[in-house]
Amino acid sequence: MELNNSNDTKITPDSYNKVKLKRSPLGDAQNNLKNSFCDHYPQNHNSLIPGKQKNKIKILNLFCGIGGNRHLWNNPNYEITAVDLDINALNYYRHLYPDDSIIQHDALDYLLKNYQFYDVIWASPPCPTHSKARCYQPHFIEMNLYQIIYFCQQYYQGTWLIENVRPYYEPFIKPTLIMGRHAFWSNKNLTLIPKFNDKKPDKFDHMTSKQFPEYLGFTINHIKGNGNKTKFYRNCVHPELGKLILDNLLRPNPTLFQYHGVE
Questions:
Q1: Residue 101 in 3-state DSSP?
Q2: Cα–Cα distance for residue pair 201/223, rounded to 1 Å
Q3: pLDDT for 22
Q4: Residues whose CB falls within 8 Å of the CB of residue 121, separated by 6 or more in sequence, listed in order
Q5: Percent of the chain surpassing pLDDT 90
Q6: Model confidence over 66-79: pLDDT tens digits?
Q7: What separation, in Å, do the N-terminal and C-terminal C-alpha atoms of the chain show?
Q8: Which stretch of DSSP H or E encloses residue 234?
Q9: pTM of this prediction?
Q10: Would 213 disulfide with which of 61, 93, 219, 254, CB 3.0-4.6 Å?
């Protein structure tokens, strides 16, 4: 889904009522998929506007993919908005999480114009250029990762977390936490998170779409759609880790006694 706004127009909650679908030049199949997103959005978008649901924790899930990190975020007090540019990934996401607000848009642009409407921001920008798998080939590092971290540090007053792969190089900004193959940057203390027992298979990099559901605990194999399902699976944060991290982000700040193991 595309937000019908120009680059010089500030997005406000009321502007969600002006969301329109633009005809895609990619053919009828793509248009049909976009029309399905139209069905997901009622004419009155107030139920999807951040801030309209009182007493809800408003979570922004940027670069959401198919929503692996979000799979166990089942608290009824969560109001989740998912943003990604890949309409194929969003097709699977909307089947898995039909109650979420789902927006097809550039994640960086959406963050810039909407960050103030959310209590929690989770972002998982593309990781290939930071991965060890690419370190043997000359390439430029994608700097969006560090732009988002810096932006949140400077301008966002809520709780934020940026997730990516553990970089093969010395990170330009020191991660708050390294856990397994993941690096996390956050404005919250993550040292009290229990160690995640990742039962990642030894042949993780060679797993197929038929093998991932057993590891991740959910499947998109029954959903008709386009795109590389194996890649979508591989880009997921394990749902148990996603829940572990979010639960920690939302817990009250630890007291001095808790730091010393005293409840």
A1: strand
A2: 24
A3: 31
A4: 59, 60, 62, 111, 115, 152, 156, 158, 159, 160, 161
A5: 50
A6: 999 999 999 999 99
A7: 47
A8: helix 229-234
A9: 0.74
A10: 219
Structural tokens at position 216 = 């991740």
Question: How high is the pLDDT of residue 205?
Answer: 72
Residue 173's pLDDT band, with cuts at 50, 70 and 90, is confident
Tokens matching residue 186: 């956050």
The enclosing H or E element of 185 equals strand 182-186
The DSSP result for 141-163, as a single string, is PPTHHHHHHHHHHHH--SEEEEE
On the 0-12 / 13-18 / 19+ scale of CB atoms within 10 A, 75 is middle
- For 138-151, what is each residue's pLDDT tens digit? 656 677 888 999 99
* Burial class of residue 207 in the structure, from the number of CB atoms within 10 Å of its CB (0-12 exposed, 13-18 middle, 19+ buried): middle
Q: Name residue, tokens 């990516």.
A: 164
CB 186 within 8 A of CB 160: yes
Distance CA 71, CA 240 (A): 8
- Residue 185's DSSP bridge partners are 162
Torsion of CA 112, 116, 118, 123, to 10 degrees: 30
Let me know how many helices (H) and strands (E) the chain has, helices first.
Answer: 8, 7
So what's the pLDDT on residue 54? 66
Give domain limits for the chain: 13-259
The pair of structure tokens assigned to 124 is 């998982």
Amino acid at 197: N
User: Does the 13-259 domain belong in CATH 3.40.50?
Assistant: yes
CA dist 78 and 58 (Å) reads 6
Give the span between the Cα atoms of 76 and 169, in whole angstroms.
40
Contacts of 2 (CB under 8 A, 6+ apart): 20, 21, 22, 104, 105
Per the CB < 8 A criterion, the answer to whether 227 and 206 are in contact is: no
